[in-house]
Every structure is written in C-alpha cells, then in structure tokens.
Amino acid sequence: MYTLLLLLIYLAFISLGLPDSLLGSAWPVIHTAFDVPLSYAGFVTMIISCGTICSSLLSERLTKKLGVNIVTVTSVFLTAAALYGFSTANAFWMLCVWAVPYGLGAGAIDAALNNYVALHYSSRHMSWLHCFWGVGTIISPYVMSYALTSSMWQNGYRMVSLVQTIIALVLLVTLPVWRVNRKVDKKDEQPVILGIRGAFAIRGVPQLLLGFFSYCALESTLILWASSYLVGAKGITPERAAAFASLFCIGITAGRFLAGFVTEKLGDFRLIQIGAAVLTLGCAAMLLPLPTDLAALTGLVIMGVGCAPVYPSIIHATPSNFGEENSQAIIGIQMASAYFGSTFMPPVFGLIANHISVGLMPLYVLMFVVLMYVMVRKTFRLTR
User: Fold this and answer.
1) What does the domain layout of the chain look like in residue ranges?
2) Which residues lie closer than 8 Å to 145 by C-beta, 6 or more apart?
3) Single pTM value for the model
4) CATH assignment of 2-175, among 2.30.29.30, 1.20.1250.20, 3.40.50.1820, 1.10.3720.10
5) What pLDDT does residue 169 have?
6) How far is CA 359 from CA 196, 249, 309, in A?
7) Which CATH class is domain 198-383?
8) Residue 176 banded pLDDT, cuts 50, 70, 90
C-alpha cells in the first residue's frame, strides 16, 4: 500500500506537469486563429499564475479541512475541466476565463503533494517526484505536435484533458490507499491554522521565501530567454539554439532522477550547495569570450543539471527546518513565492534585453544564483 500510494503521487505529479507546456506549444497557431498579438500569451499565463498563487496561499486551510487526497483529486478534475474548456474556446477572452480554474487547481495540488511527500517520504522520492513533473512537461508538446499535424490545436487540449480525467478517476477510485499514513496524520484531526502572518513570524521563513523566489526566477528566465540569448549574443542559428534550449529542461529532469540516488547520502543543504556551484560554473561558461559557441551551449546544459536538485531539496527540508505542524502553511507560501518569481522576473529581463543587451542574461541569472544561495544558507543557519 505504501508503494502504491507513492506511485499514485508520482502519477498526480505527471498530471501537474502535463498542461504546463501546452500553451507555449500551441500559441503560434492560437494567436493567429484568434487574431491577437503574439504577446497576449502573457495575459493567459499571468491569470494562471494569479490563480495558482491564490490557491497556494489557501492550501493550508484546504488541506487540513479536506485532506491531501481530496484536494489532489479535486485539483486534477479542475484542471481537466479547464483544459477541456480551452479546447472549446473560440475567442481569446474564453481562454482567459478558463485560465482561472486551471490556475486554482494547479496551486492547491502542488503545495499539498509537496508537503505530503516532504513529511512521509525520503528526500530521494522528493527529487523523483519533481522528475515526474518534468516527464509531464516533456510529453505534452509531443501531444500538441501530433494534434497540429493531424487535425487542430483544440484536439491537443482535448487529449490532455482526457488523460487528466483518467488520472483523476484513478485517484478517486484509490482514495482509501491514502489511509496508509493515517496514524501519522492523526494529529491533524483538530488542525491549527498557522496562516500567512503566523508563518512570516517564524524565524528563517522570510529568508527562505526570498531564496525560493530567486531560484524560480532564474529557472524561468533560462527557460524563456535561453534561445534568444544563444541567437542574439552568440550568433547561433535559431534551429540549433532551440535544440539546446530544450536540453536545459531535459537536463533538469535527468538531473533530478540522478540526484535521487545520492540525496540521502549528501543531504538537502549539500545538494543545494552543489546545485549553486554547478549553476555558477554554467554561467561562467556562457560568459567566456570564445570564438566557438561550444562553451555557451555546454554552459546551458550544465545549468540545467545545476538547477535539478535545488527545488526538491528546499521543499524537502521545510518540515525539518520549521516543524511538521508548520510545513503545510510554509510550503503553500513557498509555492506562491515560486510562481511570483517565475511570472514576473523573466519579463523584467525582457526589458533589459530590449533596452540594453540580451547578452546580460548569464549575469542576470548569476545575480539570482548568489541571492538564492545566501538566503537559503541563512535559513538553514537560523533554523539549525
């Protein structure tokens, strides 16, 4: 039962990753079909992020009142309905409407499952959990590519919605499996709600949130702007740049899989240290003024590997740093800070690229690497 529950949680995290790369894959066709500017994708992603931030902040109350299993099933059904809604849209404003339930569903399940795994499973499973999220993000572009090749973009959303519905039904049928940890969860029968204000009052939480914000800011900046940097600063062809930019995400997924084998031996903070060092090495490689583009391309792959252990390690360390009774509230706020960083910091670099130079991207990323490391290190010292 214990292993079966873990497999169900992995399945739920694949469902969390599946929709994340759909919009980007389909947007070149969608914006033409709806006759809106290319930049309007930002409005949809902003609405999704706002919904995700709101549900992340409410995750403590929802999880302690309903239970992780109910929140998980409801969230997957909600995202399945939102994705089907996307497939029925015949105007841009309809995408904006369906983005609301999509964001609300994503934030609640993200915070609930991260906290559940941090409490009940070892650090290697946290690393593999986020590896399975990466599997979902890798699968969905191929689904959309098939839909665009064989029919239309709406069918891509319908296919992923169907997969989400099947996953939700599997989770619904297997709800009793979650009782395997009921003895550990018994203390939550009369839950005490810590709340946002109470969480911020805990020593080390503000530093942790700033560190987590910094990590998510640098990861999202690399995902969005890596290709533009390779083309604009290194003179690489767009086709080759796109191929290596995708390797950054593959590097994160593969790195998290490999990190699962060593995380219990090294520990959460040591893995964060290693990740920060590898990220710094990748930034340095991209900045080398060499006539060949090999250093920049290698640097991007190195940064993907460097990113791999940071996110899961920060999450997994939260219960031990702040106490199991506080972890759900703090992880919910962490998710909100993560989405805030990933939503607003890449556009800030877009302004820098427009008005100064896209070649500053490695320095912009390095700034967040340093801030992330300093804040996370301070968190571990304050909570030791």
Assistant:
1) 2-175, 198-383
2) 25
3) 0.81
4) 1.20.1250.20
5) 94
6) 39, 21, 26
7) mainly alpha
8) confident
